[in-house]
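Long-time lurker. I teach an intro course on protein structure, and each term I like to show students one example going from raw sequence to a predicted 3D structure in token notation. This year I'd like something fresh instead of my usual example. Would anyone be willing to generate the tokens for the chain below so I can use it in lecture? Attribution to the forum is fine with me.
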Amino acid sequence: SNNTSVNTCNKAENVRVGQMVKCDVGGVQTYVSISEDGMRYVKPLPQMGHGISPSAYLGVLGTTGLTAYFGFYRVGLPKEGDTVLVSGAAGATGSVVAQIAKRIMKCRVIGTAGSDEKCKWLIDNDIVDA
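-- Reply from a regular --
Happy to contribute to a lecture. Here you go:
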């Protein structure tokens, strides 16, 4: 995913100059040059409100959040009250899975992480139960 601001829009009908966009080509960058045909990959971001940073699209509102959500619900098939083990619970996707499991599905969440410090962070921030 790429979040950038549109500076010039020759023949770009779906975006305006200065608008924040998502571009599904290349990596994260401030500027990108795209052919007219490549403009089909450029999508305007919705208006951000309530103090949400556009960088959220690189995390919980982007592929990290989508991976967590669909992986948990479509692959994990949780039921309310289940006990869920989240490997890598201190990572970007794992921490979102753990929070969905605990806060939305009311599951008991057991998390693993790569260090004692990360495990302490998970417990201290009430992201996992154990």
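Some talking points for your students: The chain is about 30% helix and 15% strand. The CA atoms of residues 25 and 41 lie 7 Å apart.
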